[in-house]
Structure formats: C-alpha cells, structure tokens
Amino acid sequence: MSGAAAEGEGARWAQDVREVVARALATLAPAAGTGNAATWSAPAGPLAWSCWETAEHLADDLFAYAAQLTPATAPVDDDVPFRWESATDGGPANTIRADPKHGPAGLLRVIDACGGLLAAAVRVTPPEVRAHHTFGRSDAAGFAAMGVVETLVHTDDLARGLGLAWSPPEPLVARSLDRLFPDVPRDLAPPWLTLRWATGRAALPGLPDRSGGWRWDGRPAAERG
Question: What is the C-alpha separation between 9 and 5, in angstroms, rounded?
Fold first, then answer.
C-alpha cells in the first residue's frame, strides 16, 4: 500500500471512530438525564461490570489506544505505563474515570473526549508507525478499528443494561470485521451478529462458543503470518 493510500485509510478510520462514538452517545443519551444515575449501577448486558464501570472502561479503551500512538517513539514491546487500577473488586482496571458529581451526562462527555483523542491521534500518526498491542503490533488504522469495535460491543452491553435499542450500521461493522477478524466466517450471519459472536456475545450454529475467550488480529494485513 502506498503512503498516500495508507494515510487515506487512517483518515477514513478516524472518521469511523467519530461516527461510532457519536452514534453511541446518541443511543445512550436517553439514560443520561437527571434522575437516571441509579440505572447505571445495573449490570451491563452479559458483563459482571455495572453500566457505569463499563462506560468508563470504554472511555479508557479509547484513551489507551490513542496513547499508544502519541509518544515521539511509539512503544513496540509494551503499553505506555500509565497506572491502571480497579475502583471496585472485580471492576475494570482503568486510568480514566468520570467524576460522579457530573452524573451520567458527564460520563458520556468523557467517552466523547476520549473518542476525539483517538480520532485525532490516528489522523496525525504516520502510516508506517507500529505500536504494541497484546493482540499484535498495529498501525494507526488498526488502533482506530479497535476503538470502533470496543464502542460497538460495549454500547451494545450498555444498551442491554439500560433498556435501550442499539443498531449499529452494518457497513461500519463489516469494515471492523475485515480489519480485525479476517479469519471469522462471513457467510453465516449479518455482520453485526457475526461481530457479536466473534466477541463472545452471541452464538452461531456450527461455530464454537467464544464467550470464554477471543481475540482479534491488530496487525496490518500485509504483516500477518
């Protein structure tokens, strides 16, 4: 892939990050009004975490992916060593937290801000840069795709916990599958159901249960073994 084409891919993925975060926020907004704070203590869909913890985890994912890209020399063997801690027993280990005084509306603003950080980082990162991820060293477009997938599936978790409807655009889901799950069968179900299976949240006939563990491949296609 030429440098110009790779740069274009990064810009497209940065826009995808912005789009999916905006769609997620619009979906979650009805549960963010005054008096809705208690509903965010419910479990987020199939997760053991509360909706509040899951939303913070989503923001933290978006922030962490941006952070891997932004050092002058991107880390290729480890994460940038921020301090990640769990606020509750069994809760997600995060760097990013939302101030409870600002309620669910403030929590959504934190997600929005972290999504903006990732989109901005992807836009300015040269296409040849590679950075560490436990699922394979990735380029900026790959980290953007990770942010898209995290937003897609965790918004689904949140919507289920909050009693909301979430229907992401199938073309965006399909691009995410193409980028991060190249070996996942694509002819058995629509993209959204396929992604939910790939991330351990749904069953597909004839395919193994992935709820006990799954992974994507963040490496650029040309660098996969």
Answer: 6
User: What is the pTM for the complete model shown?
Assistant: 0.94
**Encoding tokens for residue 179?**
């980028």
Over residues 40-63, the pLDDT tens digits come to: 999 999 999 999 999 999 999 999
Report long-range pairs for 93-97 (Cβ below 8 Å, ≥24 apart). Answer: 94/56, 94/57, 94/59, 94/60, 95/60, 95/63, 95/64, 96/56, 96/59, 96/60, 96/63, 97/56
124 within 8 A of 74, measured Cβ to Cβ: no
Helix 170-180 / helix 191-198 crossing angle, nearest 10 deg = 40
Q: Determine what percent of the chain falls in helix, strand and coil, rounding each to the nearest 5.
A: 55, 5, 40
Pairing of strands 93-94, 85-86: antiparallel
